[in-house]
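Design job #97: recover the sequence.
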């Protein structure tokens, strides 16, 4: 069965887009300082913080890559497994959240500098910008998929429209405006997914018909992947989440420790609802649409459902994608402002100048993200690349700050260089040998280098 476009669905997307723009403009008027723009004045309450954590983590990576592409391409059980790295990451962040707030830094690079020095901050900033620009790029493609499904316009034109929307909303109000739209998006998405789930399985003929229409391999424990390949998809999300600057900034932006803890519990509960629901819907899509781009699996179901149901789901998907794009774009621009411009170019910049610089680089990095997406054939591929650049290049050194007192500057810096260097080598010149995602190689290298260099240099100092 092919996808028949339903232009009426576009009204739901446009309606929600207008709401997001109006909310963004309203809250942009409350921006009085760079702290307002980056950390929402450290005033996020439990409900808004829960929503922004959910919406930021569940973007095009889940809607067009992640659970969606995994369920469609490899099978339902591998897709279900993607929830476990997320839940584990949330639990670990729950433990270290008080320490994150104690640092009081705008960026993860600032935390690393406190332990490893200025060189570590600069290297970390480069890694974050590389990874986050990649993440923003596939949010733009996600909007392209949505507009292609609804109107039939090309994914390329739709991606341009998505780029403009994401850049505009990130620039006008920062986290002060992003967080409330995130909360609205998260709760709309949960409602949309659980309205859709029974409807799409009814249309597909029920579970038995769905399983009868998909390849037999898609019903096995690892699908069409071997165990090592499956780990290559599970590890990147865990190690991105554990060191994700976006999440650190949100936890730092909470009203206090109690709000942060309650929000993280809400985030964990929300993900246990959202992730399996996306997987199940995409799996049903595999039965209904056997020959479409895997990244379009979730969105394609909207065209065979009643218009109202499909429209709500499509609006929810749009909301998740746009808010995730906004968040990662803003976070990357923050690194440029505070870790490069203020640290090395204009140390005496005023707060107003820093605010304006952040807005300028939000636009610049948004344009770079749009250009980058043309180099990757699928959303899932750019997702795994971006997650691994960050997870292998940054997270081992960052977690060591919280959990290993002995770690030193040489170990931390060496680990970052080894992690990102191995990732880029595996992905670009070597072109992913054995069809293994780079995390399988890069993450162990980063951890081994962290431990070995720290122990070697510590021994020299004590000898």
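Job complete. Output follows.
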């Amino acid at each position: 069965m092919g996808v028949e476009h339903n232009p009426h669905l576009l009204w739901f997307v446009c309606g929600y887009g207008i709401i997001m723009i109006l909310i963004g403009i309203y809250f942009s008027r409350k921006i009085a300082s760079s702290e307002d723009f980056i950390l929402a004045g450290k005033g996020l309450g439990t409900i808004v913080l829960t929503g922004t954590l959910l919406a930021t983590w569940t973007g095009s990576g889940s809607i067009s890559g992640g659970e969606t592409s995994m369920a469609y391409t490899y099978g339902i059980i591998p897709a279900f497994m993607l929830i476990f790295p997320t839940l584990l990451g949330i639990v670990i962040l729950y433990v270290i959240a008080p320490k994150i707030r104690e640092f009081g830094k705008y960026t993860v690079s600032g935390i690393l500098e406190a332990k490893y020095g200025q060189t570590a901050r600069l290297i970390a900033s480069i890694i974050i910008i590389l990874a986050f620009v990649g993440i923003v790029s596939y949010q733009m493609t996600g909007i392209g998929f949505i507009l292609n499904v609804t109107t039939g316009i090309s994914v390329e034109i739709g991606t341009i429209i998505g780029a403009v929307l994401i850049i505009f909303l990130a620039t006008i109000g920062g986290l002060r405006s992003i967080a409330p739209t995130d909360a609205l998006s998260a709760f709309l998405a949960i409602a949309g997914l659980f309205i859709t789930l029974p409807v799409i399985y009814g249309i597909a003929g029920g579970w038995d018909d769905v399983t009868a229409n998909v390849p037999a391999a898609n019903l096995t424990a690892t699908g069409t992947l071997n165990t090592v390949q499956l780990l290559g998809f599970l590890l990147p999300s865990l190690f991105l989440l554990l060191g994700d600057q976006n999440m650190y900034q949100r936890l730092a932006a909470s009203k206090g420790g109690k709000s942060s803890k309650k929000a993280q519990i809400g985030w964990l509960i929300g993900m246990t609802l959202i992730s399996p629901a996306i997987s199940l819907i995409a799996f049903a899509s595999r039965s209904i649409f056997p020959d479409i781009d895997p990244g379009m699996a979730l969105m394609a179901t909207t065209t065979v459902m009643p218009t109202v149901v499909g429209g709500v789901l499509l609006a929810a998907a749009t909301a998740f994608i746009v808010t995730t794009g906004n968040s990662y774009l803003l976070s990357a621009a923050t690194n440029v402002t505070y870790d490069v411009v203020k640290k090395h170019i204009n140390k005496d910049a005023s707060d107003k100048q820093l605010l304006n610089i952040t807005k300028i680089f939000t636009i610049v990095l948004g344009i770079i993200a749009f250009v980058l997406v043309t180099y990757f054939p699928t959303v899932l591929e750019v997702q795994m690349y971006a997650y691994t650049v960050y997870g292998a290049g940054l997270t081992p050194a960052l977690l060591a700050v919280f959990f290993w007192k002995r770690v030193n500057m040489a170990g931390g810096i060496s680990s970052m260089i080894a992690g990102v260097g191995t990732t880029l080598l595996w992905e670009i010149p070597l072109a992913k040998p054995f069809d293994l995602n780079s995390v399988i190689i890069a993450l162990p290298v980063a951890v081994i280098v962290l431990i070995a260099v720290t122990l070697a240099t510590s021994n020299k100092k004590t000898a």
